[in-house]
C-alpha cells in the first residue's frame, strides 16, 4: 500500500479529532452530529427531507466546517461535487442521488435532462445534474480545507486534482457568463444566486411569463409551510426560466433574466484570491489571479456601488441599470480585503443601521431591507436571517478591523444556531426557527465559528501565500 493509501485508510478507519473530544451535549458535538446524519458516504445533503441531493454552494460551506472534524471528508465533499462538472466548466447547482425517488424533489433529474439537453455543453453522462449554477465559493473552501491538514492534502494530491477544475469553473463564469460586457459574471436564474426568492428579483422576473401551475408539482410544500415559501406565481416563473434554458441546450446569453449580483461576484473575487494561494502552493506565482481579482473588484465598484443606498445593488443586464432593492447580497463585498476603506466603512454602517439593524433591532442581518415594502420576516429570502450570509459578514467585519462587531455577530450566530436546532434560517427579530432544522451548512459554519483559524485574507489586505 502506498503512502497516500495508508494515510487515507488510517484516517477513514477512525474518527479524526484535532481537538479534545467535546462533551456530548456541547454545540460542537451537536453540529458534528448533524453533519454525520446528513452524510451519504461521498457528500452531505443540506437536509434529509427538503433537500435530499448534493447542492453546490452548500457543499462548499459544509466543507469549510467539516475541515475541523475530518479534513478527509471535507476534501471528499468537494471532489464529489467537482466530479459532476460539465465540459464547459460549469459546476451544476445540484448533483442528483439516483437512489432518491424522482418525486422527492422538484425540479428532478427528468426535468433538467442534463445528459441529453446538456450534451453540447459537456454535461456528464454518468451522473444526472441540474443545468444552472450557484455562487463560486468552492476555491475558497478548497484552500481552507487544504490548510486544515496540508500533509493529508499533499499526500492525496488534493489541490493538484481540484485546481484545474476550479480554474475551468472560473473561466466559464468570467467568459461565458460575462453577459453585460463589464467583466463580471451574470446569473441567468434566481436559483443561481442562491438567495432564490429575494425581492431583488421581482422586477426582472416580471418580464418572465409563468409556467402553468398544473405543469409542475412543488415538493417543497411537503416539508415547509406555504406562507414561508415562494408563491406559486414566483415558482411558475422559476420553472419557465429553467425550461427555456434547458430547451436552449443550456446556452448562455439568450434568456429573459440576466443579473449581475454583488454577492455572487464578491465570492468569485474571494475565490480568485484563494486560487492564487493554491497556485502558490503548487509552485506558480499566483500574481495573475491576484491582479484579476483587483480588476474584478474595480468593476464591481464601478458597476454596482450605490453611494445613495450605502451598499452594492444588483445590476439588471437586460433592462440596464441598478435594481433599487436592498438585499443582504449588497453587504457581502465587505468580505473583500482590498475594498476601499470608505466603502468598507459605509457598508459597516449600513449593516448596523436601520435597514438591516445588525446588533440593534436584529441579532443576525436579515436577507432583505427591514424598511422595504416586500419585507417578510418568515418568507424565504424576503427577510429571514441566514447563517451563511452571517458567516460571510462576520469574516468581512474581521477583515476590515471591526473585531468587536465581528465577535458580537459570532456570538449571536452560535447562540441562535444551537437554540434553533441548527435551523435553515431564522426570524431576524426573534431568532425563531424557520424552514427546516438540522440544516447542514448551519451546523458546518457553527463548527467553523467554534474554532480559531488563520483567515484567508487579513485586515491588511490579504494572505498572498
Following the backbone from N to C, one meets helices and strands in this order, namely HHEHHEHHHHHEHHHEHHEEEHEHHEEH
Spatial order of the strands in the main sheet? 3-4-7
Structural class by secondary-structure content: mainly alpha
User: Would you identify the regions where 5 or more consecutive residues have pLDDT less than 50?
Assistant: 1-18, 453-465
How can the largest sheet be summarized? 3 strands, antiparallel
Strand tally is 10
Helix content: 40-55%
**Averaging pLDDT over every residue, what do you get?**
91
Radius of gyration: 21 Å
The shape is globular
N/C terminus separation: 33 Å
Percent strand equals under 5%
How many helices in DSSP terms? 18
Identify the notable features of this structure and list them briefly.
18 helices; mainly alpha
SSE order and pairing:
Blueprint (H helix, E strand, L loop, with lengths): L2 H10 L14 H11 L16 E2 H11 L4 H12 L11 E2 L13 H4 L1 H4 L20 H11 L1 H7 L1 H19 L9 E2 L2 H4 L8 H4 L26 H16 L11 E2 L1 H20 L5 H18 E2 L4 E2 L2 E2 L24 H11 L33 E2 H13 L3 H17 L5 E2 L6 E2 L5 H10 L16
Antiparallel strand pairs: 1-2, 3-4, 4-7, 5-6, 8-9, 9-10
Mind explaining what this structure looks like?
This protein has 465 residues and is mainly α. The chain has helices spanning 3-12, 27-37, 56-66, 71-82, 109-112, 114-117, 138-148, 150-156, 158-176, 190-193, 202-205, 232-247, 262-281, 287-304, 341-351, 387-399, 403-419, 440-449, and strands at 54-55, 94-95, 186-187, 259-260, 305-306, 311-312, 315-316, 385-386, 425-426, 433-434. The longest helix has 20 residues, at 262-281. The chain is globular and about 50 Å long. Mean pLDDT is 91; it is low at 1-18 and 453-465.
Amino acid at each position: 500500500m502506498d503512502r497516500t493509501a495508508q494515510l487515507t485508510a488510517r484516517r477513514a478507519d477512525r474518527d479524526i479529532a484535532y481537538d479534545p473530544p467535546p462533551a456530548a451535549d456541547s454545540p460542537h458535538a451537536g453540529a458534528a452530529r448533524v453533519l454525520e446524519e446528513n452524510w451519504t458516504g461521498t457528500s452531505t445533503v443540506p437536509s434529509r427531507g427538503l433537500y435530499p441531493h448534493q447542492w453546490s454552494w452548500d457543499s462548499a460551506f459544509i466543507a469549510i466546517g467539516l475541515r475541523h472534524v475530518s479534513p478527509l471528508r471535507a476534501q471528499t465533499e468537494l471532489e464529489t461535487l467537482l466530479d459532476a462538472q460539465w465540459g464547459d466548466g460549469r459546476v451544476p447547482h445540484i448533483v442528483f442521488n439516483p437512489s432518491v425517488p424522482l418525486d422527492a424533489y422538484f425540479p428532478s433529474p427528468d426535468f433538467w435532462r442534463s445528459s441529453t439537453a446538456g450534451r453540447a455543453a459537456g454535461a456528464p453522462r454518468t451522473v444526472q445534474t441540474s443545468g444552472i449554477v450557484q455562487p463560486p465559493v468552492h476555491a475558497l473552501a478548497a484552500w481552507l480545507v487544504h490548510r486544515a491538514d496540508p500533509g493529508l492534502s499533499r499526500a492525496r494530491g488534493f489541490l493538484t486534482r481540484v485546481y484545474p477544475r476550479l480554474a475551468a469553473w472560473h473561466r466559464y463564469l468570467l467568459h461565458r457568463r460575462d453577459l453585460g460586457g463589464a467583466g463580471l459574471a451574470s446569473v441567468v436564474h434566481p436559483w443561481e444566486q442562491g438567495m432564490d426568492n429575494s425581492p431583488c428579483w421581482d422586477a426582472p422576473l416580471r418580464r418572465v411569463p409563468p409556467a402553468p401551475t398544473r405543469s409542475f408539482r412543488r415538493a417543497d410544500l411537503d416539508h415547509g409551510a406555504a406562507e414561508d415559501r415562494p408563491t406559486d406565481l414566483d415558482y411558475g416563473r422559476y420553472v419557465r426560466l429553467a425550461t427555456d434554458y434547458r430547451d436552449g441546450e443550456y446556452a448562455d446569453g439568450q434568456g429573459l433574466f440576466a443579473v449581475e449580483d454583488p454577492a455572487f461576484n464578491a465570492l468569485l473575487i474571494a475565490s480568485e484570491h484563494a486560487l492564487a494561494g493554491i497556485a502558490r502552493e503548487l509552485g506558480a506565482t499566483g500574481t495573475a489571479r491576484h491582479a484579476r481579482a483587483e480588476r474584478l473588484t474595480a468593476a464591481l465598484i464601478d458597476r454596482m456601488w450605490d453611494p445613495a443606498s450605502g451598499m452594492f445593488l444588483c445590476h439588471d443586464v437586460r433592462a440596464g441599470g441598478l435594481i433599487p432593492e436592498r438585499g443582504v447580497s449588497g453587504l457581502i463585498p465587505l468580505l473583500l480585503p482590498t475594498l476601499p476603506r470608505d466603502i468598507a466603512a459605509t457598508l459597516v454602517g449600513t449593516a448596523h443601521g436601520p435597514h438591516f439593524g445588525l446588533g440593534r433591532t436584529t441579532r443576525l442581518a436579515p436577507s432583505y431591507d427591514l424598511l422595504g415594502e416586500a419585507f417578510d420576516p418568515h418568507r424565504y429570502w424576503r427577510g429571514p436571517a441566514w447563517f451563511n450570509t452571517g458567516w460571510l459578514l462576520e469574516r468581512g467585519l474581521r477583515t476590515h478591523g471591526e473585531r468587536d462587531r465581528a465577535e458580537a455577530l459570532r456570538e449571536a450566530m452560535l447562540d441562535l444556531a444551537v437554540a434553533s436546532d441548527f435551523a435553515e434560517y431564522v426570524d431576524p427579530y426573534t431568532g425563531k426557527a424557520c424552514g427546516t432544522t438540522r440544516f447542514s451548512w448551519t451546523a458546518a459554519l457553527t463548527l467553523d465559528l467554534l474554532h480559531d483559524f488563520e483567515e484567508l485574507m487579513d485586515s491588511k489586505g490579504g494572505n498572498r501565500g
